[in-house]
Specification:
Length: about 130
């Protein structure tokens, strides 16, 4: 069983930055593909970014390309999401997700393929 705990959310002004962290339990982190999703009020959960087991492959939603950066530290069982140039439309609850499956870029954004989810962390961007 894998448990995920997100942290780092908060309130920031437009143009500001935040770094989210997702810590995973257990010794299997290095074989987990990881992703970040977000859900704004009244909207469906949407894919933000995914990263492969080694960290060598990443895939970003068009809405965050050039502003967000995902990384992982397998020694620390942690994945990070650096968010720069934040916009009010980035306001959402951000969820960390993990899967033992190998995901290609076509399906990396499919939430159903992720088996484990964190509880979410709120990010609010004021205008």
């Amino acid at each position: 069983q894998v448990q995920l705990v997100e942290s780092g959310g908060g309130l920031v002004q437009a143009g500001g930055s935040l770094r989210l962290s997702c810590a995973a339990s257990g010794s299997t982190f290095s074989i987990l593909a990881m992703g970040w999703f977000r859900q704004a009020p009244g909207k469906e959960r949407e894919f933000v970014v995914g990263i492969s087991r080694s960290g060598g492959s990443t895939s970003y939603a068009d809405s965050v390309k050039g502003r967000f950066t995902i990384s992982r530290d397998n020694a620390k069982n942690t994945v990070y999401l650096q968010m720069n140039s934040l916009k009010p439309e980035d306001t959402a609850v951000y969820y960390c997700a993990a899967t033992f499956k190998t995901l290609n870029k076509v399906v990396v954004g499919t939430a159903l393929l992720y088996n484990y989810w964190g509880q979410g962390t709120q990010v609010t961007v004021s205008s």
